[in-house]
């Protein structure tokens, strides 16, 4: 199974609902126009490949999916991009706002 998925209105319930019942979901809110988001994307790809058995990295392009991003941002209190939200059993268990290093993400996963 692919350990990374782009979130959209069609797969939102499956990813954030069903999948988060089985493994941790790392939801990344990002903008392709942001250099910080671009550098973080490479870190997330690496983490997805190493933690694939226990983790799904879900990415939400806030430029493309503006309405969905606004709805989710309001629900979780998102204030900046990039932001990483860790979900288990359909609920947020941790959140990292702003650009993160690989070690900072790994610390949450430990």
TrEMBL record:
Coiled coil: none annotated. Residues 1-110 form the Thioredoxin domain. Gene3D superfamilies: Glutaredoxin. SUPFAM superfamilies: Thioredoxin-like. PROSITE patterns: THIOREDOXIN_2. One of its GO terms (molecular function) is protein-disulfide reductase activity. One of its GO terms (cellular component) is cytoplasm. This is Thioredoxin domain-containing protein.
């Amino acid at each position: 199974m692919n350990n990374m998925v782009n979130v959209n209105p069609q797969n939102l319930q499956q990813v954030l609902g069903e999948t988060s019942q089985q493994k941790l979901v790392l939801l990344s809110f990002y903008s392709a126009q942001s250099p910080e988001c671009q550098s973080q994307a490479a870190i997330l790809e690496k983490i997805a490949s190493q933690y694939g058995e226990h983790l799904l990295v879900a990415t939400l392009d806030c430029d493309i999916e503006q309405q969905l991003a606004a709805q989710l941002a309001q629900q979780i209190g998102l204030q900046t991009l990039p932001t990483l939200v860790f979900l288990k059993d359909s609920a947020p268990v941790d959140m990292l706002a702003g650009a993160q290093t690989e070690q900072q993400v790994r610390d949450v996963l430990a």
